[in-house]
Amino acid sequence: MIYVVIVFLWVSLLLYLVMGGADFGAGIIELFTSTPNKSRTRRIMYNAIGPIWEANHMWLIIAIVILFVGFPTIYATMSTYLHIPLTVMLMGIIARGTALTFRNYDAVNDNMQKIYNKIFVYSSFITPLFLGIIAGSAVSGRVDPQANNFMDAYVYSWLNWFSVAIGFFTTSLCGFLAAIYLIGEARDDAERRSFIRKARIMNVAAVVSGGVVFIVSIKENIPLVQWVFGNFIGIAAVGLASISLVLLWYLISKGKRYIIRVLAGFQMTMILLTTTYKHYPNIVILKGGGHLSLIEHRGADKAIQALGIALLLGSILILPALFYLVWSFQKKSANGDADLHH
C-alpha cells in the first residue's frame, strides 16, 4: 500500500504543477501584457481558468495530507525549516484567489479593481516562485536539522542561488503552460498570434532559467546533472521532452489548438520525472549527506493502509466530478460564444 500512497503523492504534485501551473501562469501572462490588451487578456484568461481555478488547489491539499498522515517526519521537517517560503506561498494563494473573486464579482466597479488586479498578477508570480524555491530547497542539501541559529535553520535553508533559480524556472514553466493553454481559447487570429508570441517568450525564459539552474547546481556541488543525465530514464525523459517541444511548435504553426496542451503537459511530466527519479525514494536531501526517505521515514503501517484505501476510494468519487465540472463549464463557454456570434 505504501507504493499506492507514493504514486498518489507524485501524481498530485504533477497535476498541481500542470493545472495549477497553467492557472498561475495566466496571471503571469497578464502581468507582462501591455495595458491596452489587459482587459482582453483577462476575459480570455477567466474563461479558460474559471472551471478549475479553485479545484486546482485540491491537488496541493492532497499532497499535504499525504505527507501529514503518511510521512509525518518529512512533513514536520519541511514545515519547520521551510516555514518562511511555505507561508509566503500560502499567502500568495489566498491573496490571488481573493483578488480574482473580488475583481470578477464585486458589486461595485471602482478604483478597487486596480488594486485587485495588482494583487492578482503579483501573487500569480510570487506563488509559483516560492513553490519552486521550496522544491529546490528540498533537494539542495541546505536543510540543516542540526543548525543552532535562526539564519542557518530557517533562512539559508531556502535563500540560496539554487533554490531561487528553481523558483524562476518554475515561474517560467507556468507562464509557458498558460500561454499554450490560452492559444486554444483565442477567438481570432490576432489574439492567437499574441499568445503564440508570449509562449515563445516564456519558452525562451524557461530554457535560459533552466540553464542557470544547471550552472548554479554545478557551482554549489548539487548533483543535478547526475540526477538528470546519469541514468537511462533521465536521458530518455529529456529526449522525449525535447522531441515533444519541437512537435508542439510544429503543431502550433499548423493551427492545432488542443493537442498542444497535451504535449505541454507531457513535457512537465518528463521534467518532474527527470528531477525525482534518480534520488527516489529520498524526497528531502539534508545538509551533511543525510536524507528523508519515503520508504524509511513513512508512518505506521496502519496509517499507510488507511490512507491508501482513502485515496483509492476518494479518486473514484472526486475524479468523475472534476471531469464533469470542466466539461460543464466548457460547454457553457462554448454556448456563450455561439450566442455572441448569433
Explain what the structure shows.
- With 342 residues, this protein is mainly alpha-helical.
- The protein has one domain (2-221, 289-341).
- The protein is 78% helix and 2% strand.
- The protein has 13 helices and two strands; from the N terminus they run ααααααααααααββα.
- A two-stranded antiparallel ribbon has the order 1-2.
- Helix 1 (2-31) packs antiparallel against helix 3 and helix 1 (2-31) packs parallel to helix 13 (301-341).
- Mean pLDDT is 88; it is low at 337-342.
Our Rg estimate from Cα atoms comes to: 20 Å
Number of domains: 1
Helix/strand-derived category reads: mainly alpha
Number of helices: 13
Estimate the helix proportion, in percent. over 70%
Give the percentage of residues in beta strands: under 5%
- Average pLDDT, all residues: 88
Amino-to-carboxy terminus distance: 55 Å
Q: Care to give the gist of this entry?
A:
About 80% of the residues lie in helices and about 0% in strands. It is mainly alpha-helical. The radius of gyration is 20 Å and the shape is globular.
